[in-house]
Amino acid sequence: MRFASIIKVALRALRRNTMRSILTALGIIIGVGAVIAMVSIGNGAKAQVEAQVASLGQNVVSVFSGSVSSGGSRGGWGSAPTLTVEDAEAIDREVPDIIGVSPEVRDRNQVLANGLNWNTSVNGVGPDFPDIRSWKIAEGTMFSEQDVRSVAKVAVIGKTVVDQLFANTDPLGQTLRIRNIPFKIVGVMETKGFNLFGSDQDDVVMVPYTSHMKRISRRTNINSIILQAANPEVIERAQKEITEVLTQRRKGREADFTVRTQIELAQSATATTQTMTMLLAAIASVSLIVGGIGIMNIMLVSVTERTREIGIRLAIGAHGRDVLMQFLIEAIILSSLGGVLGILLGVGSAQLVSHLNGWPVVVSTSSIVVAFVFSAAVGMFFGFYPARKAAQLDPIEALRYE
Cα 145 to chain center, whole Å? Predict the structure, then answer.
């Protein structure tokens, strides 16, 4: 029996019981639709996290302070300011793959300007900070290396601070008081938005790190150092060289720093979304198995209903493999059509969720192809037993069947 004839007979058999065929394929439709929708939502969340990580800068390597031990108690990074400006200068001098260095000193302070006050993050940074963080200056300029050396009282502020203290005026050239110390505003950063941890990046005042250390916080150590590697290919090498430089400077003391790359941050940030995507996809795949069981059940019923038809075909010369192929093709067509409708349902559901809730969704071609192939495989797997049962019918017994 020719393959084209088998497909024609299979389609005619499915059309004969249209409603039953639709209901049988419903499990596959829902299963494929659920998998596509869940994976698309998960991929959207992952893409959003990756975009937020990318917004932190390009080829960034961060050195955090505070891996210290005291009385058997060990603190994680940031638990104590153990880095120094000299550490940053040593890295800049001895690691050739680094093209940008910015020591960081972080604090929160009440700032006053224009007759208003606002509690914000006051960060001491270096002139390379905007380039490292890929953060452009919207108005004015960034303070210079000369301002760092002279411990100048200059500041660059974020958009949130502008909205709170200078809503109706131009902030450039005005005075901002930090701990009653006047700082001249020389620049305003572009809007950056919220970071991975939900903090408003625009709610910040940036001053030269020397000014922060000597005028505001009066400390000798810095919280962290952010650096920019020349390109993505040298990040791992730069990380190793930075670790070596800082270790040598400790002269045998226990490492009191942690070096992390942007790649590591991206991997840790997306790990949760990847796990959730896989979990949701696995749960949704259960309905595909249920749909496959439904196909097996209906195909067994179909074999029973068409026993005499099978007997006649076998009696007039059809081979068992022809009957096997016919019922197997019916199951595959049923599951494949369900897969196509499921893909449309999944893509539509993902777009609807995105429209209603504002969630980002990414419908990948690979997930569509995998879902379709899996649905066809489900039809083949669960359709094989009924098809084999039909092929093994005895023609005489089948003709006697009432």
Answer: 37
Measure the CA–CA gap between 128 and 140, rounded to whole angstroms.
16
What are the Cα distances from residue 41, in Å, to 33, 47, 347, 363? 12, 10, 10, 8
Q: In terms of Cα–Cα distance, which of 102, 172, 174 is closest to 141? A: 172
C-alpha pair distances (Å), 313 with each of 2, 301, 394: 14, 18, 11
Distance (Å, whole) CA 4 – CA 137:
67
Whether this model's pTM surpasses 0.90: no
Residues 36-93 have pLDDT tens digits of 888 888 888 777 777 766 666 778 899 988 654 444 444 555 556 789 999 999 999 9
Give Cα 224 distance to the centre of its chain.
26
Token couple for 40: 């698309």
Q: How far apart are CA 166 and CA 114, in angstroms?
A: 7
Best CA proximity match to 113, nearest among 156, 155, 166: 166
Using CA atoms, how far apart are residues 318 and 114, in angstroms rounded to an integer? 94
- The torsion angles phi and psi of 360, rounded to 5 degrees, stand at -75, 140
